[in-house]
Automatic annotation (TrEMBL):
This is MFS transporter. InterPro entries: MFS, MFS-Transporter, MFS_dom, MFS_trans_sf. Keywords: Membrane, Transmembrane, Transmembrane helix. It comes from Noviherbaspirillum pedocola. One of its GO terms (molecular function) is transmembrane transporter activity. The lineage of its organism: Bacteria, Pseudomonadati, Pseudomonadota, Betaproteobacteria, Burkholderiales. It comes from the Bacteria.
Length: 418
């Protein structure tokens, strides 16, 4: 059964004043979606930046540092598929608002935890409530952007990298000078305000686009699509390594080499900085040469796997600083390529559902890696071994993409369902 891009079932009104207004307003949409994704990602990364010193104060063992991160992503994965469908049914505007207000409140309340169990419960609920943020952003960008979709996805995807930079540059320093509680209160308030701003400004679609109601059949076809399944496994391997590294980089460097949390945070900032450049650049290249998207993805994931091995051989700050920017570019560069191609598979009517399905699969890696790396390091005390185990993920992604058939320009090559 052939799978048809669902954009074929929608129509566009004639170009004119409405089209001109849409062309201008789509950049406002991108800005709001990007800011929303940044603040959401900062909330989930914030704990990792101060896990070592605050965890010891709370009496949490090194093996359990990743428990809060894993708890968040368990909830996040559970909510992703439903959240993607909700984005298509309710619209991205309402969905994005609902993914910001509850996490904002819970981030504020996180400072009142006094046990591992309480922290895990709050993080799980945060993940559950934030589960549709990604699919809502992909949905609204897929609707507002056409041929420049790759560039828009690339810019939007810098949100997670910027979040790593902001969180590592600000949270450890604020926690040291004031308190970690103050940092989390501030993040909670900002997240809630962002939700109000998104609801006030965003519109679900341009006046030139007529949306078709998502049907159950559309979702069933997505689940049977071979190309989408390959992207699911590929992204799982990449996100497994990306989140595992982001969650453990600071703590591992601090524990292994006695480097202060502030310096370790600076290394992580340098790690995130190059990703901010790589994501929009690769998204732009995928717009120019859509048939090369698969090979660009393979190159990023292959480099990511190799540089994790190299980073594991480092032993001083200078070496960490030298490798971190290249590692960051590879660790995040593949994401806009995969996101744009998933949106091509689905079309804008089912973009939320496709994003939810793929991201749910990808975030299974987020669930596994923080606890796995904590377990490995607690039993081996080997920085090198921990990084080598993370390197397996992107290597798996390369194998999946090598198994993909033909062109990755899915507008020209409509995949067949199995």
């Amino acid at each position: 059964m052939a799978y048809n891009n669902l954009d074929d079932c929608s129509s566009r009104k004639p170009h004119g004043a409405d089209q001109s207004n849409s062309d201008r307003f789509k950049w406002v949409v991108l800005a709001i979606a990007w800011l929303s994704f940044v603040i959401s990602c900062v909330d989930r990364v914030a704990w990792s930046t101060i896990a070592s010193p605050v965890g010891q104060t709370l009496g949490i063992s090194v093996a359990m540092f990743g428990a809060f991160v894993t708890a968040f992503y368990v909830g996040y994965v559970v909510a992703n598929i439903a959240g993607g469908v909700i984005s298509d049914v309710l619209g991205a505007r309402c969905t994005l608002t609902l993914t910001l207000l509850p996490p904002g409140i819970l981030t504020f309340l996180f400072i009142y935890i006094h046990s591992l169990t309480a922290g895990i419960i709050i993080q799980f609920i945060m993940g559950l409530s934030a589960g549709a943020d990604y699919s809502a952003c992909v949905k609204i960008l897929a609707t507002w952007f056409g041929k420049d979709k790759g560039k828009a996805m690339g810019i939007s995807a810098t949100g997670s990298s910027i979040a790593v930079v902001f969180a590592n540059a600000i949270v450890p320093s604020v926690a040291l000078k004031l308190s970690w509680g103050f940092a989390f209160k501030f993040l909670g308030i900002m997240t809630s305000l962002m939700g109000v701003l998104a609801f006030s400004i965003l519109r679900n679609s341009p006046a030139t686009v007529v949306m078709r109601r998502l049907k159950l059949h559309d979702v069933k076809v997505l689940f049977r699509n071979r190309q989408l399944l390959l992207f699911c496994v590929c992204g799982l391997g990449g996100v497994y390594a990306t989140v595992g590294f982001a969650a453990w980089c600071n703590a591992l460097i601090t524990k292994e080499y006695g480097i202060s949390p502030v310096v370790a945070g600076a290394v992580a900032v340098w790690f995130g900085f190059r990703a901010v450049i790589a994501k929009p650049l690769l998204g732009w290249l995928s717009d120019l040469w859509p048939r090369s998207a698969r090979w660009l993805s393979i190159g990023c994931l292959g480099m990511f796997s190799s540089l994790l091995i190299v980073f594991g051989q480092c032993s001083n700050v200078i070496q960490f600083y030298a490798i971190a920017p290249f590692l960051g570019a590879a660790a995040y560069g593949y994401t806009p390529l995969l996101i744009a191609q998933v949106a091509q598979i689905s079309g804008h009517n089912a973009a939320g559902a496709a994003a939810g399905i793929s991201n749910a699969a990808w975030q299974l890696g987020s669930v596994v890696s923080p606890l796995l790396i904590g377990y490995v390091y607690a039993h081996t005390h080997s920085f090198e071994t921990a990084l080598a185990i993370l390197a397996v993920g992107p290597a798996l992604g390369v194998l999946c993409l090598l198994s993909a058939r033909g062109s990755m320009s899915l507008a020209d090559n409509r995949p067949s369902s199995t």
